[in-house]
Amino acid sequence: MRYWTAEDIFDVECPYCDAEIEFWKDEPVRLCSKCGVEVRNPRIDLGCAKWCKFAEECLGKNVEHLTVAAPIIERLRADVTKALADAPDRLALAEEVHTLADTLSAVDHEIDPRIVKCAALLLGASHDGQDLPEQAGLDPETADKVRQTIRDAQGVPPEDARETHIVHDALMIAQAQQASTPPNVEQLVAALVLDHARLLARHRFG
Questions:
Q1: Burial 3-24, CB ≥16 within 10 A → b, else e
Q2: Which SS3 state, helix, strand or coil, does residue 11 take?
Q3: Number of structural domains in the chain
């Protein structure tokens, strides 16, 4: 039984259709009843996952990656913000690619959020990765995967590269948002890999 107050339940606007989705504070994702896409809880606190034996059952299979990812992403964001202090447009793009990648990744419970979020930030910042992932706390193997994702996301992503698909589509949508003229929606949608990314693009650009 949950002994919480009304403040522990809140509504979030679906990024795909604007419908209201009701979340409990500990729910990582919920299915939108209108469009049917899974949406991440933007206010979730994963602190309980560090000690609760039911964390995987409650929060999903990638809960370990999620709890490890949080401090790494914050350190990387700080490094990117410092590096782009004189380039506000690039910083804005990096943040938007990261936000979109986080939104799109809610649908896939098997991906590694460390790879998705680090690659999204660095690719949006026009950074090739170099040594920033390791400085932020990633192990060398995962850091190499981040750099590979950055390279692959700038072309046609390999079929089985799920993290790359998310980052690729997040970058394309973010660039379309920052463009000085509205995008050709059909061309943009055709260039996206993921079905829910296409849905998001149609919703944002009409």
A1: eeeeeeeeebebbbbeeebebe
A2: strand
A3: 2
Q: Quick count: other Cβ atoms within 10 Å of Cβ 86?
A: 7
Best CA proximity match to 94, nearest among 109, 104, 79, 113? 79
Specify the pTM.
Answer: 0.82
Name the strand (E) or helix (H) holding 10.
strand 9-13
Instruction: With a cut of 50, list the residues of the chain below it in pLDDT.
Output: 1, 51, 61
Is residue 152 domain-resident?
A: yes
β-bridge pairing 9-13 and 20-24: antiparallel
The tens digit of pLDDT for each residue in 153-174 reads 998 899 999 999 999 999 999 9
What was the pLDDT predicted at 29? 85
Which residue segment(s) compose the domain that 11 sits in? 1-43
Residue in the block written with tokens 């259709």: 17
56 located within any domain: no
Query: Is there a single domain that holds both residue 183 and residue 132?
Result: yes
Look at the block and give the residue holding tokens 């990314």: 197
Q: Hey, what are 101's tokens?
A: 């990648």
Q: Where are the alpha helices (DSSP H) in the chain?
A: 55-59, 63-83, 88-105, 113-124, 132-136, 140-153, 162-178, 185-191, 195-205
